[in-house]
Amino acid sequence: MKIRGVFIEDTFAEAFTMRAARLVITGTSPRWAMAAALKLTGFATSVIGCKIEAGIERELGPEDTPDGRPGVSVLAMTMGKDDLPKRLIERVGQTVLTCPTTACFDGLPDAPDRVGVGSALRFFGDGFQASKVIAGERYWRVPVMEGEFLVQEKFGMIKAVGGGNFLILARSAPAALAAAEAAVDAMAGLPGVFLPFPGGVVRSGSKVGSRRSKTMIASTNDAFCPTLRAITKSDLAEGINSVLEIVINGLDAPAISRAMKAGIDAACRDDVVSISAGNYAGKLGPHHFHLRKIMSDGAAA
Amino acid sequence: MSDEIVLSLRGVPQGTVDASSLAPHAWGELAAGDVARLALRVEGVGAVALGDVFAVKGERSNRVRVAGDLSIVEGLGTGLDGGELLIEGNVGARVGARMKSGRITVTANAGWGAGLEMAGGTLDIGGSVGPRSGAAPLGAKRGMTGGELIVRGSAGPEAGASMRRGLVAIAGDAGEGTGRATIAGTVVVFGAMGPNPGQWSKRGTLVALGPVTPPASYRYACTYRPQYLSLLLRHLRDQRLPVTSEHLTGSYRRYSGDLAELGAGEILAWTRN
Q1: Which residues is B188 bridged to in the sheet?
Q2: CATH number of A2-15+161-297
Q3: CATH dotted code for A18-158
Q4: Which member of A193, B18, B38, B262 has the greatest number of CB atoms within 10 A?
Q5: What is the mean pLDDT of chain A?
Q6: Looking at chain B from residue 119 to 178, which residues have their Cβ under 8 Å from any Cβ of chain A?
Q7: Containing domain of residue B52, as a range?
């Protein structure tokens, strides 16, 4: 299969079941909502080192938020259901509670599993906090120097999918980067997904384990490193001089499939040789996204 | 099974009717005859069959409509736990007392103690209410513990007195002692709030969108815009209460009190920017 001359390899991305929450951060202006969202999603690229993966789903207009102010929708995911509340309490407490004018609301109100966030952060109020129930939902008002921080007591938690991906194999580093940027732009704002890595792009794809250390759980994916083609069992054909990866996390598999389809299509441009994907031979992750199937009909694999 | 059960008052009862023993949420399995045999108490008469006071139409439904001048019918909807009760016209005292869930709509006025000790659900009064709506019975410690009481007219004295949780929203004026001795909960008044609001309150919020004079035992704290009010007022706007954009964008003077009690309560007095 080729798209505008770019070969689509007959392979699949292998992804994992994770737990996700959606946070709606509002502020008096888009500037402050985004300021909190950027801090909250900072250092949240991979659970390997960050314990959480988080990213901005989209910006919200006043008509889309509970308090009628501009906002940002953030998705956050962990591997285990016990990890998610811990990480949310840490991050909301350090990055939203601290940020002027902001409030934080649950973006998954229909999720039956609820985890306490405001119920823990309220203690910052040192006994001066107060709760209010509005339309059946409890919110905490935590007094702060600016006025009050408002946070919902509980947030919805659902099973989600982490680790959807594709690889852009290009003739040059500039060509790979241009294709990756185009892919990220094409996926920006799609509902239910986020790209956890810097600018949406990963240059350091990893393999499981290490050749030299038994304690490392991941190390460089030497099979896709152009500089190692001559000395390792390379998966790169002659003429490929740079590879970039796009990792996509989503609330469900169809959302990831839609994003992959849009991203791969945008990445098929000059000096891109092929599109591949990372997997573990299907042994680790239950979600398999077959590139050719996605590009032919967009359905989840 | 019918879409609804309709109770039509046959005439003016000989005395005050106590309908608090009825449990309309449990009528989903009752035939019309069974409903008509339910007992009411009429002052000066004693126990009578519901069918003697009301004409019954329909059966096996959790939606009940009551029609007629019900000013001397008390305790309608007491303990309601689901379903829907529509009262067309005025109703007497203690409508929706101790209701747990479901919805009661009154198209006109209600007597004293509307929503007395209510714990959940929605009680929507189209007109005005008498004293102690959403409050505790005299001598009792706790009033409302949950749910929403909406009054589209005005409220008599001591609305929300001793309430523990829940929301009372009054579109018109509220009488003396609104939110007196609240333990927690919220009272929103769109009109004027009578003298001594929130007196002896431990916690709880009184939102004054009209004129208010906080008691001397309240102390001014600051002027700000509590973000939670955006949610609350939007919710009330969805309930067709007269929330304006100025209410949403305005600032509020916060008074803490009652300082003769715990002092964790507040009066939030809307002020134009």
Answers
A1: B169, B207
A2: 3.30.70.520
A3: 3.30.70.520
A4: A193
A5: 96
A6: 146, 165-167
A7: 1-62
